[in-house]
């Protein structure tokens, strides 16, 4: 492990030197968890906050926490101190990944599916899970390594011992359907044996989800006792677990949480840059990551150029009100719309610029979009994108509804009026919602607002613009190809509308 790590660092230095011509002695490394911490803290609006990082593994740390202090005036100094850590192989990220693999999903990809599956089960097996992880009152934990193979295997994450305890892993090709996913059931009814197996795996998913939440709550409580700070920055891949984030907000003394949208390793490079800028070069803070729209955008000319050069017929609608009206009319007519606007989102969530949109009021839309449009598992939920100032109609917000994780789709709340948005609520009535404010995405806001004016429901069903297993579309060409290869009815590329 050490040899592997040192080797990588030397190797990265020589690549940087070779590709961009920077001398080796000018290249700085910031530790992985410092990078995670900086990516959250230096994007947050906070001057002083507790910081919790939790992921698979960095160099050695897998969970670390401490405190950040920032200077906005030019007189003080910026600092991040991580004062406690838990080291490899004891890792909550790798622990969750072992269950992700056991449940038949791909590690580093399928963790969301475990979270989605958990809602179908009951946490009946937490006792069994506490056989493989020992947790102390302060949240420090240790894995019983007899159950895991990840330290010595690149192919598997859990051992035969683990299988003895939990039974056979779920077949990745087995369908996970329930009686709620009616579209599938009509054609291929569930057998009792299938239903029994599905229930067992769903109960395991619910149990692992409950354990990870409970451990994170203990760690967060301990961190609060140590720092007595009311603000918390979360980062690392585990910070994408929106169910856990919500419980930390609700059940601890922390009053406000910040998580930047690319909280996993894809955001670590930004953290490394921010750490150097603010801590090593002592530059004053002036930036808050208020929205996720930092990717590439395409001009109307570029989009038109693509359409014309490929002989694709389109309607060009210059007037924004007219464009919004046409899209809302289509959604009301139960059409599914590919919505491609402005800059690509930073992080794994589609937040209204590379989204597939549909009517959340129609329960059947969940099966339509999962099965006919995205070709993905019928149990997976969709998000509602909700107007900030009308969100109380649908949800009850505890501490505050104006928090960044809500804008970045990183909390899950129980819907107060799930009956108004059945296609965008999960089976247990929960929603991984996105709260949309007028300032950060005016066009998307106006679109939802127009839908609200027509229906009284201040939300649209929003899911990322991609098919199962593919990345979210970036270019107009990506969007067009995905549109062609799916059952989508309408594609909106900037001010250009394409129909099937
Ligand atoms: Fe990480």
Explain how this protein is built.
By secondary structure, the chain is α+β, with helices and mostly antiparallel strands. The chain folds into three domains: 2-85 and 222-280, Nucleotidyltransferase, domain 5, CATH 3.30.420; 92-214, no CATH class; 300-499, Carbamoyltransferase, C-terminal domain (DHBP synthase), CATH 3.90.870. It has helices spanning 2-20, 32-41, 92-102, 111-118, 126-132, 160-166, 182-187, 192-227, 242-251, 268-280, 300-309, 320-332, 365-373, 404-407, 442-455, 476-484; strands at residues 48-54, 61-69, 79-87, 133-135, 141-143, 231-235, 256-258, 315-316, 337-340, 354-358, 383-387, 413-414, 430-431, 434-436, 459-464, 490-493, 496-499. The protein has an eight-stranded mixed sheet with strand order 8-17-16-9-10-15-11-14, sandwiched between helices. A hairpin with a 6-residue loop joins strand 1 and strand 2 (61-69). Helix 2 crosses helix 10. The radius of gyration is 23 Å and the shape is globular. The termini are far apart. The structure holds fe (ii) ion. Residues 32, 36, 55, 58, 236-237, 265 line the site of fe (ii) ion. Fe (ii) ion binds at residues 32, 36, 55, 58, 236-237, 265.
């Amino acid at each position: 492990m050490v040899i592997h790590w040192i080797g990588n660092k030397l190797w990265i230095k020589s690549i940087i030197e070779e590709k961009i011509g920077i001398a080796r002695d000018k290249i700085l490394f910031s530790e992985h968890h410092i990078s995670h911490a900086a990516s959250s803290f230096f994007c947050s609006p906070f001057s002083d906050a507790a910081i919790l990082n939790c992921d698979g593994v960095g160099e050695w740390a897998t969970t670390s926490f401490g405190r950040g202090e920032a200077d906005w005036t030019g007189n003080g100094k910026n600092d991040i101190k991580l004062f406690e850590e838990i080291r490899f192989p004891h890792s909550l990220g790798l622990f969750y990944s072992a269950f992700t693999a056991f449940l038949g999903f791909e590690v580093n990809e399928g963790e969301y599916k475990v979270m989605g599956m958990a809602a179908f089960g009951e946490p009946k097996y937490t006792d069994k899970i506490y056989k493989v992880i020992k947790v102390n009152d302060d949240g420090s934990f240790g894995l019983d390594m007899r159950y895991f193979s990840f330290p010595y295997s690149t192919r598997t994450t859990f051992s035969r011992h683990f299988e003895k305890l939990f039974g056979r892993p779920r077949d990745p090709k087995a369908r996970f359907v329930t009686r709620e996913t009616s579209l599938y059931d009509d054609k291929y009814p569930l057998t009792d044996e299938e239903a029994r197996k599905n229930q067992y795996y769903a109960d395991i998913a619910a149990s692992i989800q409950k354990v990870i939440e409970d451990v994170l709550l203990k760690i967060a409580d301990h961190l609060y006792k140590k720092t007595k700070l009311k603000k918390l920055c979360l980062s690392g891949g585990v910070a994408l677990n929106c169910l856990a984030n919500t419980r930390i907000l609700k059940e601890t003394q922390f009053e406000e949480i910040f998580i930047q949208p690319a909280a996993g390793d894809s955001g670590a490079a930004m953290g490394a840059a921010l750490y150097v800028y603010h801590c090593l070069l002592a530059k004053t803070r002036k930036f808050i990551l208020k929205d996720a729209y930092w990717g590439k955008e395409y001009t109307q000319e570029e989009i038109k150029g693509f359409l014309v050069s490929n002989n694709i017929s389109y309607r060009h609608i210059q007037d924004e009100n007219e464009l919004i009206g046409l899209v809302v009319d289509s959604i009301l007519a139960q059409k599914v719309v590919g919505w491609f606007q402005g800059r690509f989102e930073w992080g794994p969530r589609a937040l209204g610029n590379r989204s597939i949109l549909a009517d959340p009021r129609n329960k059947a839309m969940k099966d339509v979009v999962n099965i006919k449009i995205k070709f993905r598992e019928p149990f997976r939920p969709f998000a509602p994108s909700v107007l900030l100032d009308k969100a109380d109609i649908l949800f009850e917000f505890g501490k505050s509804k104006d928090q960044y994780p809500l804008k970045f789709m990183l909390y899950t709340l129980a819907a107060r009026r799930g009956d108004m948005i059945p296609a965008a609520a999960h089976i247990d009535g929960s929603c991984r919602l996105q709260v949309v404010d007028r300032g950060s995405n005016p066009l998307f806001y106006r679109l939802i607002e127009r839908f609200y004016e027509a229906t009284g429901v201040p939300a649209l069903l929003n899911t990322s613009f991609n098919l199962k297993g593919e990345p979210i579309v970036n270019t107009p060409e990506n969007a067009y190809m995905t549109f062609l290869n799916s059952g989508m009815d309408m594609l909106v590329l900037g001010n250009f509308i394409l129909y099937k």
